[in-house]
Amino acid sequence: MKTLSGKILKLFGWEIVGKFPDIKKSVVVIAPHTSNWDIILGKMFMNEMGVKNIVLVKKELFFFPMNIIMKIFGTLPVDRYNKDNSIIYQSVDYIKSNSEFNLVIAAEGTRQKIAMWKKGFFYIAQKAKVPIVVGYLDYKNKKLGIKTTIYNTDNVKNTMIEINEIFRNAHAKFPDNFILDKRYS
């Protein structure tokens, strides 16, 4: 372990599996997301990998003094209800305007149990012309890492079927809150 993040993960029994691909820009989709700990573990993992990354977080968490912590933590506030300035276009602009930008998003788009995942991560990757890096958290075996990188984002259905298959045996912190997207399983 080369960073403080890595040492903390190891101290708590987490094992890092896989390597981040040698790319400067991507959408990193992580699942299962059933706990706020997922974000913290994911950030520590990305820091240990040495990957510059930003996590999208609902703007409601950006209140004083939490906004200072969120900024230090490497997050961007998003207004989930502003239809005039969609998260997709905000994110694409962020990616395109930076030479190195790996945007981390929960695959499901929420910690709640939902039968139909939000597909914004797919459309962000497609419009920004960047790959989707598929990361995971396995609470049962205390592993976190990278499963694969999807470079072809031509077809939402095929990509979502592939991602659903990757997460078929996922072990969430709160298993009752995680199900695959029923449209693609």
Question: How would you describe this structure in keywords?
Answer:
single chain, 185 residues, alpha/beta, 32% helix, 22% strand, globular
Quickly describe the structure.
This protein is of the alpha/beta class and 185 residues long. The protein has helices at 4-11, 37-49, 66-73, 87-96, 120-128, 156-166, and strands spanning 15-17, 25-31, 53-58, 75-78, 101-106, 132-138, 143-150. Strands 1-7-6-2-5-3-4 form a seven-stranded mixed beta sheet, with helices on both faces.
What does this entry look like structurally?
There is one protein chain. With 185 residues, the protein is of the alpha/beta class. 32% of the residues lie in helices and 22% in strands. It has one domain (4-28, 42-146, 162-173). It has six helices and seven strands; from the N terminus they run αββαβαβαβαββα. It has a seven-stranded mixed beta sheet with strand order 1-7-6-2-5-3-4, sandwiched between helices. The longest helix is centred in the N-terminal third of the chain and has 13 residues, at 37-49. The mean pLDDT is 89.
